[in-house]
Amino acid sequence: MANTAERTTTGARARLRPGVVTGADYLALLDACREGGYALPAVNVVGTSGANAVLEAAARNRSDVVVQLSNGGARFFAGEGIADAMEARVLGAVSAALHVHTVAAAYGVCVVLHTDHADRPLLPWVEGLLDRGEEHARLTGRPLFSSHMLDLSAEPLEANIAECARVLRRMAPLGMGLEIELGVTGGEEDGVGHAVEDAADNARLYTQPEDVLRAWEALSPVGHVTVAASFGNVHGVYAPGNVRLRPEILRASQQAVAARAGGGGGPRPLSLVFHGGSGSEKGKIREAVSHGVWKMNIDTDTQFAFAEAVGRYVRENEAAFRHQLDPATGRPTKKAYDPRRWLRAGEEGIAARLDEAFADLGAAGRSLAA
Ligand SMILES: [Zn+2]
User: Fold this and answer.
1) Which of 29, 139, 176, 187 has the greatest number of C-beta atoms within 10 Å?
2) Helix, strand, coil percentages for the chain (3-state, nearest 5)
3) Residues identified as active-site
4) Distance 207 CA to ligand 1 centre (A)
5) Which residues contact 83 (CB under 8 A, 6 or more apart)?
6) What is the value of pTM for the model shown?
7) What's the confidence (pLDDT) of residue 269?
8) How far apart are CA 24 and CA 201, in angstroms?
9) CB under 8 Å to 365, separation ≥6 — which residues?
10) Cα(253)–Cα(288) distance, integer angstroms
């Protein structure tokens, strides 16, 4: 991979320049997570306010973090007023990436910039971002994003792998990694995914280790892949009892690949990703991380944290959301309805939920940023 930033070593731990990481620095960060037995929260954002809240939470927890955009989040980032949805998805993700590139280093942590699920109809989104990423690399020496995800898990394994290989051939020279999905994560996110109550599909909620091995053998010679393996995880938060997480499936996948790799890469050679982390049992999260998960996606819980905090603020300042002059006192309510006040309440809600995530994942205090 290209674009190695200058690195120094303090003890055994690599120190990286703060800001967006790509190429060798991205790989050093993944290695540090797996070797150190911790994982980073990957948080979906839909605007600068959410992105800033994620960076603020990472900074105060002295942790590195993943900022990511779903296709719908990217579209929203560009604005609902753009008629061409695919154009908006590309422009919104570019806009989000440029914002994070601009401010991330000032927070003093390392940031992985990533895009979430893209199924076949969303390939033009990823390819549009690669067009922009190549242009950005020509101008700055680094890509726009650290990684993208392709989710072709609804297709036969060989078709999934072949398409991932094609796109990865384009990404690897830019110093980018690819996240793939094997098996299906239950639930759906922005229209990509499967209904969790579809009982006939339940076996597919658990990835087969031989499929992981097949994908690893085909793709790792092309470039760096991380695998979203399914171990019963679902998108969204459901009543207890509906989700049965089996992190031992991740261990079996590591063992299959480690045996084939013959010791190169250690006992956990695979980079694994945990989708649908919201609402998961803490013990299962720790177990998944111990099997080489370096990234856990959180969307539903941070959406709720934002909404809950804004809702509380609105209830506590109700007059300001109805009147410019408080009917009880006659005083202007401007200070309370200023968007900076209630958006800030939402940001604080996101950051507080992430304090919990950094602790759950063992990431607090582990930033590699120099
Ligand atoms: Zn997901």
Assistant:
1) 176
2) 50, 15, 35
3) 116
4) 14
5) none
6) 0.92
7) 92
8) 38
9) 61, 62, 63
10) 12
Cα(182) to centroid(ligand 1), Å: 12
Q: How many residues does the chain have?
A: 370
| pLDDT < 50 regions, the chain | 1-11, 196-200
Angle value at C-alpha 68, between 236 and 369, nearest 5 degrees? 125
Q: Measured between alpha carbons, how far is 182 from 356 in angstroms, rounded to an integer?
A: 28
**Which token pair is 314?**
């609105």
Give the number of other Cβ atoms within 10 Å of residue 163's Cβ: 16
pLDDT recorded at residue 262: 83
Query: What is the predicted pLDDT for the residue at 2?
Result: 38
Residue 12 contacts by C-beta under 8 Å, 6 or more apart in sequence? none
Determine how β-strand 110-115 pairs with β-strand 187-189.
Answer: unpaired
CB 297 within 8 A of CB 42: yes
Which segments of the chain does DSSP mark as H helices, in order?
Answer: 23-36, 48-60, 71-78, 85-103, 123-140, 157-171, 209-219, 248-261, 282-290, 300-316, 334-337, 339-360
Residue owning tokens 């929260």: 41
Instruction: Provide the token pair at 174.
Output: 């830019």
47 CA distance to ligand 1 middle (Å): 19
Picking from 127, 126, 101, the residue whose alpha carbon sits closest to that of residue 21 is 101
In the reported structure, the alpha carbon of residue 116 is separated from the centroid of ligand 1 by a whole-number distance in angstroms of: 7
Q: Taking the CA atoms of the chain, what radius of gyration do you get in angstroms? A: 21
